[in-house]
Amino acid sequence: MKTIDGKQIKLQIRDTAGQEPFRSIHPSYYRGAAGALLVYDIIRRDTFNHLTTWLEYARQHSNSNMVIRLIGNKSDLEFRSEVKKEGEAFAREHGLIFMETSAKTGSNVEEAFINTAKEIYEKIQEGVFDINNEANGIKIGPQPAATNATHAGSQGGQQAGGGCC
Length: 165
Known about the structure:
Belongs to the small GTPase superfamily. Rab family. With 165 residues, the chain is an alpha/beta fold.
């Protein structure tokens, strides 16, 4: 768990590695997602060439406000890159946020997730995502227990703001 703006944020991550056998279950993944990371391997052009298909599929099956980040992985092998600046251009063309990472060295990996979570959080703050509708891929977890002063005057064990526990 990470803290953003003083709030604990927990991400649920599903990785299909772009494999076709998982394609039939993707609609349910996207329907309940607030964000997605589309990752390609910078030293394998074929993974980059499939991005258009995966992006269209994600957009077709998701909320139109879903945060999508494009990730070029294996930045530690940049000298072998088959996909030079094309990732940045693709991201610009499709309105995505772009960054390169290295799963091997850990470079920018955590940042990719944290920055995606921050962008989702900003959309929540702006009212773009309805936090009461879990179909947006956002679920509010247990809230911290209130202080005894908050319970003053409450009845039946319920807090002043409603709810129980």
